[in-house]
Amino acid sequence: MNNFFIEIFDKKSQLDIKKNKKLEVFIGKNIYVLFDHKHFEFLNPKSSQNFAVLSSISPNDKNRLLTNYDESPQSSSSQILLNLFLKHGKNIFKDFKDKFFLFIYDTRNKNFYVIRDHVGFYNIYFTENNSSIYLSSRIKHITQFLNLDFKVSRNNLKKFLELKPIRDSETFYEHIFKTPPASILKNVNKNLVIESYKKFKKISLNKSSNGQIQQLRQLLKDSIIKDSNLSEKKIGFLFSGGLDSSTILSFYRSFNNGEQSLYAYTSTYDDIDPKIKNLIDERDYQKEIIKYKDVKDRSFDSKKLSTLTDLDWYLKIIGQPFFFPNLYVAKHSFKLASKDGVKKIYNGNDGDTVISHGYEYLLELFLTLRWIKLYKSINKVAKIRNKSRFFVFQKTILSQISLNKKTFLSAKKKHESILNQSIHSNAIEVQSLIAAEYGIEEFYPFYNIDLMSFCINVRPNLKLNGISRYILRQAIKGVVPDKIRKRTDKSNLGHALVETFLCKDREIIENYMNNPSNLISKIYDIECLKKQWKDLQKNPRKFSTGSNVPSLIFSYVVANRWLDLNNEK
User: Fold this and answer.
1) What is the CA angle 316-321-322, rounded to 5?
2) Which of 105, 139, 89, 137 is nearest to 31 (CA)?
3) What is the sign, positive or negative, of the torsion defined by CA atoms of 49, 53, 58, 59?
């Protein structure tokens, strides 16, 4: 379940949780620790020289630490991490490639360090009350265990309603905070301080284009094939038929040798309006992979599924507003996987962002006045996509300048900035919480830190060479079917979202359009959204592509329902 809750107190604990059937409990001097023993390993202060340690690390990373440092293989992961952190400090984190978590508490001076991994697989929320400090993997633990009236952050709620990003150290509560990815939370002179550590690594790149393509191929293999998963009889995959999910499933198949059953979970839209079905249907691409005997097709029709329909269930688990309109796809996949006895699932989330479509390279050419090369590059893209050069220029350059407050001259710097955004960890948090409800552990191969670092530093013209993500398409040649590998289009689930609003969610949307919460009435222009909702109902196709109105409606309903549930509580 990836759960932990920690209280660090001066004199007396403020909690009254003596028994918990789901979490292991440790009560020591000035510290109270609840944790899920399946995912976390605890080191008692009595056996570790006055240090309490809670940790989680992948088997691959643990083996790498044992190889690189002179540590006893008989030692626990928590003991190894404690020893290395005391010797090397935050420099040790450069050797981690996968998800990890580390909490160290010194019982003598009451100092502590809690470290979040480079992407943010493990969440670290924190707050203070009555001289006690509370740390938790779930925000709902803090709101429920402490039983305090936390005030809603009006500023962050307003940002959420307007689709603006919230700072990665803040939540929807005024006095509950969050440790950003690649950061250390520690107490200094009884003050909490957040300190970042270096996230991306220096990668030695092959000088030739073909060499870099082969490097990417090897990195994909290393990030997908986990030794700890090879012993599983069943492995699941969130599979859409797109380039990212197809890459993961195909690579896994190539090294599986038919020894495991592979389950492909995907949403289909057979009963949707035939006029838009061709815009979102991926079945022809999915068939290229699910035709193999070792791949079990576990597709399901989304006819009766909707995120807003089950909104109370999601909010109860997540504990605060979330933006994930198509979350029902993951939820139903996890539900099916649980019935199938599948415990581990691969997720191709954000493969396009990590690899990069490469369009930031065109912006770099434009801003650095290399216009001849820019013209040739745009011309090449236009021919492959069968679009006009002006269309390509407008979509890949003008849109980048107008939509971003900060413009980067360097394609590399822009790519790195995108990968540092909190949207990645937020998506992982939400989806992982849902997975945990069904006893599922997720794996995100594209978030391997070596792979991310490589993709940032690879030559920009290898990311875009007439076709987007050129280097990925070359690296997966012979592994992923060519019909998928060479495709230049992508399904647009915006059509499915609008259809869902009109056919399944209309009642709940109408209810909150006419009965908004008092707080939202004070901070948001509801009349404007009402008009947009009416316009959407009259012309759904207009709002299915290139419009943020469906997203605004989704956020609005989620925020209202969350406030209603808080008031009821």
Assistant:
1) 100
2) 105
3) positive
